[in-house]
Amino acid sequence: MDDAELVRSTCEGDGLAFTAIFDRYAARVHDLALALLRDRRLAGDVVESVFGEARRRLPGLLEEHRLAVWLLAVTRRHAALRAGPVAGPDRRPTLPGLDPEQDRLANLVWEAVGDLPLRDRTLIELSLRQGLEGQDLADALGVSVADARQLETEMRVPIEKGLTGYLVDRSAGGRCPDLTKALKGWDGRFTLKGASLISRHVDGCAVCTQAGFELPSPFALYASALPAAFPASLEAQGLERIVLRIDADARTVRPPSNEAFQEPISAPVIPASTPPAMPEATQPVDRPVPLDAGSSPEAGDPAPPLRSHEVP
Predict the structure, then answer these.
(1) What is the band of 236 on the pLDDT scale with cuts at 50, 70, 90?
(2) Which one of 17, 69, 89, 112 is most buried, by most CB atoms within 10 A?
(3) DSSP labels for the chain?
């Protein structure tokens, strides 16, 4: 069955249909959560909470064929609720292992992206590894299409340039004494400020510019990471603690109302002249779902709806 059929069957009380949804998407939810949080324990918690919420809210999903995007949106939100000020210790990606040098560079990029704020690595992860674009990317981020494009323009370009310079600095054959001097006092963490500093040097240095041309695209290196292996123990726990438990309570799920879901998914326009900044943590929860943990809604708030009806 396709996604729409599985959603409809689940809403009609078919427990096997929801089990099929879990089997189809649990590994992808886990992969996204692990990439964002870099913490295997928290990624497992996200899987459980995402599918727990999904089972309760599926009756309100109108665009059943967009189930995958909706699950990624919910995953992004639940990961933000658990994110700390820095990424967790699980920094190594799963790589193809075809070329040792490519893998080394990809590991460097993966580690560098882990130093970025959650908002930035969420955008990179959803667009590069999850392959979302246009309306799907905007809905997964919880912003309008226009704001998603603006975020890509204002964040991806400087980050990509900064990552290129970062690889130049970290490559044995591409070291530049002037770059080392320019980065004096830098602690080595890949922040947007550090990326800007590296980019300014590379733009004005013929040696580093040439070295950058000889390196693979840092975004291509990041995208080369394979999906993380889904732990067998997590699969067993998920089936027992999520699927079976919630299916037993499925009779308590009420049908959707006729009222449109009120939580907006558009975001205020971000001026092009300023770097992207998310709303403060004190904003009301009926504002657009933010991209960073600091201004995330509380755990009990509804997930991004993708034009669904409200489930009372």
Answers:
(1) low
(2) 112
(3) --HHHHHHHHHTT-HHHHHHHHHHHHHHHHHHHHHHH--HHHHHHHHHHHHHHHHHHGGG-S-GGGHHHHHHHHHHHHHHHH--SS--S----B---S-HHHHHHHHHHHHHHHTS-HHHHHHHIIIIIS---HHHHHHHHTS-HHHHHHHIIIIIHHHHHHHHHHHHHH-GGG--HHHHHHTTT--S---HHHHHHHHHHHHT-HHHHHHHHTSPPHHHHHHTPBPPPPPHHHHHHHIIIIIIHHHHTGGGPPPP-SSBP------PPPPTTS---PPPTTS-TTSPPPSSGGGPPPTTSPPP-SS-B---
Is the pTM value of this prediction over 0.90? no
Nearest CA to 279 out of 266, 296, 263, 265 is that of 296
Do 215 and 174 contact (CB within 8 A), yes or no?
yes
Distance CA 110, CA 166 (A): 12
| Contact status, residue 167 vs residue 186, Cβ threshold 8 Å | no
pLDDT at 264: 30
Q: What is the pLDDT, as a whole number, of residue 141?
A: 93
